[in-house]
């Protein structure tokens, strides 16, 4: 009950500011008579028109441009416009099928490396919408300000770099920790509260931004600063309901005097009997956490699996828990109800609880031990 | 595991058709030079402009109407447009605060009585968006066709009757029961499968249609044919996170030779020790169902509480389970992650599981034993 009470203090979450940015392509949509610049080929014009039907605003074209005027002076109501989503697929051939991807990022801090990395993604940007949620703290304000600056640059830059649409949501509850200092954030005692708060942020984001045109949701943390440029093609290519790459970190090994990599995210794992026994003896509101010496689970951690001498980026592994630093989900899995439990769900919360829930809904959860994304090194 | 397999056959749910209808007000938005009819007062013009920012399409106004043209002939990217949702509230004074309501209806059959009833709701229609989801069956097709006919009439009728926006989603999985015959639908053996399928439909609907501007979600089944015209004002007036009226049914009592009412929905209840003991001895995939003689739970059923001689429509009762025939939810409760579990959640599914989940998230669940809505009598 103490948990319920402490959670209620932050409830109801309400979004106090949704800054909806829709740049670039959309203005072309409604100005068919604008002078066509020489660089705008027929095909890029076509892509601009597609971009306007982005998933966050399905009815941007809900009417014909010229409506007949009725006898009473009103323009007549437009006829029923059907958005035929028979082609709403999620397939290995995602680009050819024009599948829209929604990248969702809980914004703790803004890293230029994060933005530079998503700007370099080679999946067609007119098929990518971005959604952010940031806390209403000084740090959150600073992150949003920096993000908006980066957005303004990209969205007024070359057409091919511009994203279909961008939404920024602001949560009105305080995050449980004032400091985003890494040590404080990872202290085991603070983890439960922190991850329950993060669950609420993730749920607000996906419930609010998922539209009828979204095929895939890519969860990408704001401190992921390096991925392959083909990340979306690669991950959609596996055609799995839920798939998670391995999140590592680059660091300078001062003993060997060279840069090396090390595991960062320990939340992707295969369950163990030890962990299940621990859970069986827990109270209903206690949770299991991974990556803490105080609570050895003996789960098989994906972070420890890669053999750096013999990597196979296509290798797949069925998982029971996932981390959310980078996580691709078919939109249908969310539509079926899979979300990030802010309450202990089989003694799991947030992304680990999400994996359990996806499996309860009958979906497989897959990890890619030898496919890497990299976390910022604080 | 058998359950997981049988559920996977219907997965992944994908929406094969989203017919997005946006009528009426929107066309006025983008035609400021249209001749103003004498009946369009300044205030109704204002309301029409508001209506265009409906929750399903936040970026309908993402640009200024006239963009400067850059030297290269492109119109300049519009500046960042902030949709300031500081005013996104959910309060007892919902109309004065212009709070948007999303009415969500899983469409099994179309009843003219359902449509006539929502058309009579006195909550300002420009603040109401409607969302439907229908199965891809012959019955579903017929229901959608009838619905579209009703929509066309209302949305081209008097301005005050028109709704802000309407979305129709089609699910591509077969409902578990071909027949919507009442007896077949209620057979206990079919209930688990039916309600898991209904959970998926409800989740698809809320994940896809909830937008950043939505304050309240009113779940209203397609066979609810009579409510007070002030339903939304009345329910929002209680200012509760989750609130459910009592669902009854009118019938002709042939012995007494007069019309009378009787309870219909038994899913709103206060838990009992008997039910908890039953649950404690169940396997992880078994569920409790209410309203079946084969499984007496001795829960306190809201359906049985009203004393018809002494009604108090303001009387509130804390509940553990709710039915979904009519159910008002603050949008923030969904944004926090509360959904309709398609898997046994504390041995509960669908709306009853939703109530449990809302409570796990720290929200109260309230019933109104003496406030009635009426179900169609088959």
TrEMBL record, chains A, B:
Q: A Pfam family name for this chain?
A: Anp1
Q: Name one GO molecular function term.
A: alpha-1,6-mannosyltransferase activity
| Classification via InterPro entries | Mannan_Polymerase_Subunit, Nucleotide-diphossugar_trans
Q: Is Transmembrane there in the keyword field?
A: yes
How does the protein's chain sit in the membrane according to the entry? Answer: Single-pass type II membrane protein
Q: The organism sits in which domain of life?
A: Eukaryota
Its chief place of residence is Golgi
Gene Ontology biological-process entries: cell wall mannoprotein biosynthetic process; protein N-linked glycosylation
SUPFAM superfamilies given in the database record: Nucleotide-diphospho-sugar transferases
TM helices/strands, residue ranges: none
Where do Basic and acidic residues bias regions lie?
178-196
The terms describing its cellular component in GO are: mannan polymerase complex
UniProt KW keywords: Golgi apparatus, Membrane, Signal-anchor, Transmembrane, Transmembrane helix
Question: Disordered: where is this region?
Answer: 38-70, 178-199
Q: Where in the cell is it found?
A: Golgi apparatus membrane
Family membership noted in the UniProt record? Belongs to the ANP1/MMN9/VAN1 family.
This chain belongs to the protein called: Uncharacterized protein
Q: Give the organism the record lists.
A: Penicillium desertorum
């Amino acid at each position: 009950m103490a948990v319920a009470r402490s959670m209620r203090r932050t409830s109801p979450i309400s979004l106090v500011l949704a800054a909806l940015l829709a740049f670039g392509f959309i203005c072309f949509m409604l100005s068919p008579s604008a002078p066509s610049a020489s660089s705008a080929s027929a095909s890029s014009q076509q892509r601009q028109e597609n971009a306007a039907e982005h998933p966050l605003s399905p009815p941007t074209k809900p009417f014909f441009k010229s409506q007949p005027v009725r006898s009473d002076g009103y323009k007549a109501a437009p006829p029923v416009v059907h958005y035929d989503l028979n082609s709403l697929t999620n397939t290995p051939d995602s680009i050819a099928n024009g599948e829209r991807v929604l990248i969702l990022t809980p914004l703790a801090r803004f890293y230029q490396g994060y933005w530079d990395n998503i700007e370099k993604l080679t999946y067609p940007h007119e098929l990518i919408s971005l959604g952010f949620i940031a806390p209403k703290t000084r740090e959150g304000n600073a992150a949003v300000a920096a993000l908006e600056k980066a957005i303004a640059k990209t969205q007024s830059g070359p057409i091919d770099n511009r994203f279909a649409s961008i939404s920024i949501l602001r949560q009105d509850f305080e995050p449980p920790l004032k400091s985003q200092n890494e040590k404080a954030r990872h202290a085991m005692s603070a983890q439960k509260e922190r991850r329950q708060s993060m669950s609420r942020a993730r749920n607000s984001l996906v419930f609010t931004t998922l539209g009828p045109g979204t095929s895939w949701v890519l969860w990408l943390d704001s401190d992921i600063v390096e991925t392959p440029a083909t990340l979306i093609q690669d991950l959609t290519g596996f055609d799995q309901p839920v798939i998670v790459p391995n999140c590592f970190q680059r660091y300078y090994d001062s003993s060997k005097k060279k840069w090396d990599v090390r595991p960062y995210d320990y939340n992707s794992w295969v369950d163990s009997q030890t962990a299940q026994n621990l859970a069986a003896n827990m109270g209903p509101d206690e949770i299991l956490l991974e990556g803490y010496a105080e609570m050895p689970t003996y789960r098989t951690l994906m972070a420890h699996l890669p053999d750096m001498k013999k990597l196979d980026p296509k290798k797949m592994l069925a998982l029971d828990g996932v981390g959310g630093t980078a996580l691709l989900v078919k939109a249908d899995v969310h539509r079926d109800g899979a979300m990030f439990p802010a309450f202990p769900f089989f003694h799991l919360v947030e992304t680990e609880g999400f994996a359990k829930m996806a499996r309860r809904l009958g979906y497989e959860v897959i990890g890619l031990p030898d496919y890497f994304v990299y976390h910022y090194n604080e």
